[in-house]
Amino acid sequence: MISSYGRAPSTLYSHLLRRNTNAELQRDLSTAEQELSTGVHADVYQSLGAGAAEALDLNASIARDEAQVTANKLLSGRIDTMSQSLTAIREALQPALEQAVSSGNLGSGAALRTAAEAALNSLISLGNATYGGRLVFGGTGALQQWSMPRNDTGLSPEGVIADALSAGLATPADLSARMADLDAIFGGTAADPAKQYDNLFYRGQMGGGRASVGIGNDDVLTYGVQANDTAFRDALQGLSMLASVELDAIPDPQVLAGWVDAATSLIEKGSAGFLALETELDSSSTRIDNANERMQDRMALYKGRVSDLVSVDPYEAATRITALETQLQASYAVTARLSSLSFLNFMR
């Protein structure tokens, strides 16, 4: 018969077993204390079990929305810069328009020409506005400086316009001919391609003025303004007409009146076009703000749900800590009592 004492665990094994038990209790206690202090499960996905998939999906959606909101803010900044630049352009046109009206078409030509030159240079400068280091009205380029020759053709806008008007404005026939020449330049039908607007004034990208971008929630925004849009052409043509001619030298008052009226009409048309573009851009900016607001509301909802999934009940965590402390203290007490037992102590 095999003695039952042979099946009893050894003293060493018992000691190791108790030590391992105490280590597990200490680890569980440390985890419980961490969860109580942070309010979140130490191992979120293990604690969630089947709910882990929901938490992963929600976090992925939150990350996508955060990235989209960030991209939308950059886009909104670019659009706002466009709109503000167009507002500044309209304001720069106003003194020339007021001078043309107050002169009665037959007043001081020198003052009107000066006002037109100032507005022309302001328009070109504002047309080269940038956002984030990029031109907002042309991509790689926007508007050529008035008196500066282009690197590719060697022509400057000032020189080409002066050449087109060099035959003078003495008669109504001259007025019609000069208007036709300028219409060809700004309309892109001049016989010499180098003297067409897109190759003379404009230096930006061709055919890419409007872009379509997603702004979240399956909403696609189409936006964009280029410096070769009609508003720019009209305003620049009208200002060029006033800035390139010695108005006081036009001998026929009717020709002078017709020339100034035509120029003023183009400037006013350009100003109205800029206002329409501003309105469109502001509407786009509002759409972006609304999209961001919807995504931020959704993120708040999702973050609340994730918080509910991963959060620890403070009362439950405190109760678990108390239970673990009690269990660990009991284990320590048993271990201390067992370690003090020996044959010698028994014989005393």
Brief synopsis:
GO terms for molecular function: structural molecule activity. With 348 residues, the chain is mostly helical.
Instruction: Write the CATH architecture name of the domain at 66-303.
Output: Up-down Bundle
Gross morphology is rod-shaped
β-strand percent reads under 5%
Strand order of the largest sheet: 1-2
Report how far apart the termini are: 33 Å
Any idea of the CATH class of the domain at 66-303? Mainly Alpha
Mean of the pLDDT scores? 83
CATH topology of the domain at 66-303: f41 fragment of flagellin, N-terminal domain
Name of the CATH homologous superfamily of the domain at 66-303 = f41 fragment of flagellin, N-terminal domain
Helix coverage percent? 55-70%
Helix and strand run: HHHHEEHHHEEHHHH
Number of helices: 11
Task: Explain what you see.
Its main location: secreted. Flagellin is the subunit protein which polymerizes to form the filaments of bacterial flagella. Residues 10-140 form the Flagellin N-terminal domain. This protein is mainly α and 348 residues long. It has a domain at 66-303: f41 fragment of flagellin, N-terminal domain. 68% of the residues lie in helices and 3% in strands. The chain has helices at 11-38, 44-48, 52-102, 109-127, 157-164, 172-187, 197-200, 230-243, 253-310, 314-340, 343-347; strands at residues 130-131, 134-135, 211-214, 220-223. The strands form two sheets. It has a two-stranded antiparallel sheet with strand order 1-2. Strand 1 (130-131) and strand 2 (134-135) form a beta hairpin. The radius of gyration is 40 Å and the shape is rod-shaped. The mean pLDDT is 83.
